[in-house]
Amino acid sequence: MTSSPDRNKFLSACLKELDARGVLFCISRNHDKFWVNGSSDVDILVSPAQFQAAIRCFENAADASGYRIALRNYFVNYSLVFHADHAGLVRIDIEIDVRWKTRTLLDAETILAARREEDGLPIPSPEHEALVLLCNCAWLGKITPTYKQRLEELTASDERAKLTDLFLCNRFGFDRSSFLRLLATGDVMQLRTCFQNGSTPQNRIRNICRKIARTARRLIFPPGIIINCHRVPREDFLLDNGELEFLFPSAKAARTGDPNSRIFLALFQGGIFWQDSKQLCFSGAAVRLWAGSTRYFRAENGRIHHDATNQSAPLPEGGDFIGRVLADINEKPSVAGRSQNHRSSMPGDGMTSSSKTIR
Predict the structure, then answer these.
(1) What kind and span of H or E run contains 44?
(2) Sheet holding 272-275, edge to edge
(3) What pLDDT is stored for residue 21 in this prediction?
(4) Domain boundaries for CATH 3.40.50 within the chain
(5) How far apart, in whole angstroms, are the C-alpha atoms of residue 163 and residue 212?
(6) CATH code for the domain defined by 221-331
(7) Which residues pair with 44 in a beta bridge?
(8) Delimiting residues of CATH 3.30.460.10 domain(s) in the chain
(9) pLDDT tens column, 89-130
(10) HSE-up of residue 22 (Cα within 13 Å, Cβ side)
(11) What residues contact 338, with CB distance under 8 A and at least 6 apart?
């Protein structure tokens, strides 16, 4: 993994905008990869009251850095993907709390009040960062090697381990033996149960309302795309196209032959429907009509095409090409007559190592 001058210029502009507008924030996880190109997105936590201000900061920074918004979507958190010609994609996930399903496990204000600085960036306190990582493991259904390593680092010293153990045990009943068992086995079932049965069901009504609003938007404007790849094996398309993961998580993908419900969910949740058969059944035609022509791409003869705008690119540039097309669509009225630039009003309806607390 290498650093990118264009990407870092954009991220530097983001940090300056946030500071200039008085938006308190911290890098909730993976801060060591903040300045590095790779498969990691940027996770930034802000308070719900400053959510819209944070979005404006990122938009302003993008304008000043030559980036454009390619995609907006809710996954677990609100996601913005930015594109710049010849500079690739940058995805920023905005968090307003640490949440498991409809339960807020820890609010942003508490995390921001105890944030500290490490490698020149504001990050959560060790016990709060541990909770962020554990919650993400619960959502993923597994503990990744990167998260395991970071959790071990956060509890390497006796003092840190004691603080983290006390915090997790008092708040969720997740004691030291459970923590060590999770690291050893990777089984997140007990962790999920602790989150589900914990005594802090904060903001459940707000989170339920957010989920309903998100569902309604997705039904009207499905955030996923269709890629017709029956003339090119899907595996060939994915080769050298790691950027697609920034736009459409592979875990939410579906392909021809999958149950209709899975295909629907792929588009509904912001994934890819790989149409790898020439025959388009009735349900497939209905899905394409629902998604709209602006969300339809096809791969053939070593190129990827977007018929609605008559654009194409070599197949190895597929991820970057899709990002550019979506950025173009977001800047002008949709060629299909459906606006793709629908903004969210939720949820507010070179480094030196240090470890100091920011107040």
Answers:
(1) strand 42-45
(2) 254-255, 272-275, 225-228, 296-300, 303-306, 311-314
(3) 96
(4) 221-331
(5) 37
(6) 3.40.50
(7) 27, 94
(8) 1-95
(9) 999 999 999 988 888 899 999 999 999 999 899 999 999 999
(10) 1
(11) 221, 292, 294
pLDDT value at residue 342: 44
Q: Is the dihedral of CA 236, 239, 241, 244 positive or negative?
A: positive
Measured at the CA of 222, the angle between CA 221 and CA 227, to 5 degrees, comes to: 130
**Residue 148: half-sphere exposure toward Cβ, Cα within 13 Å:** 13
Report the CATH number of the 1-95 domain: 3.30.460.10
What are the tokens at 203?
């903001």
Q: What is the pLDDT of residues 147-182, one digit of tens each?
A: 999 999 999 888 888 889 999 998 888 999 999 999
Q: CA-to-CA distance for 327 and 11, rounded, in angstroms?
A: 18
Residue 120 Rama label (left phi>0; alpha psi -120 to 50; beta): left
What tokens were used for 84? 């710049």
**Paired tokens of 241:** 């196209």
